[in-house]
Every structure is written in structure tokens, then in C-alpha cells.
Write a structure and sequence with these properties.
The protein has 2 helices and no strands. By secondary structure, it is mostly helical. Keywords: Membrane, Transmembrane, Transmembrane helix.
């Protein structure tokens, strides 16, 4: 069975807390604010939500810890 050190477990828990708080704040902010106006004339100008960034960081951390 795989064993994880205390340090790695603490880092994983910290990343999970950050990701969950980002998801919660993004969900509450989206419920109150209207949709932003689309960018006109800006080709391939995609906005990235905080939830997408947090999920990316979480998956990266898990991949690094599984290495």
C-alpha cells in the first residue's frame, strides 16, 4: 500500500483547502454578478475562471506528489 509522508499530506490538504475556497468564492461571486460583456475585436481572448486555475493547480500538485 502506498504511504505518504506527513509533509506531503499537509501540502495536499493545503491545496485542497485553497481549491475549495476558490470554488466557493467563485460560485458566490457568479451568483451575484451579471455576466460580463463579450470582448469585441479581441481574437482568442479567453478569460479563465478562478475555479479552472485552482483545479489546474490541484491536479499539478497531485501529479507532482505521485511522482
Amino acid at each position: 500500500m502506498a504511504q505518504i509522508s506527513i509533509g506531503k499530506a499537509a501540502v495536499m490538504v493545503a491545496y485542497a483547502i485553497v481549491a475549495l475556497s476558490a470554488f466557493a468564492s467563485t460560485a458566490s461571486a457568479q451568483a451575484q454578478a451579471p455576466a460580463p460583456a463579450p470582448d469585441t475585436g479581441a481574437a482568442f481572448s479567453l478569460t479563465v475562471s478562478g475555479a479552472a486555475v485552482a483545479a489546474s493547480l490541484l491536479f499539478s500538485a497531485v501529479a507532482l506528489l505521485r511522482r
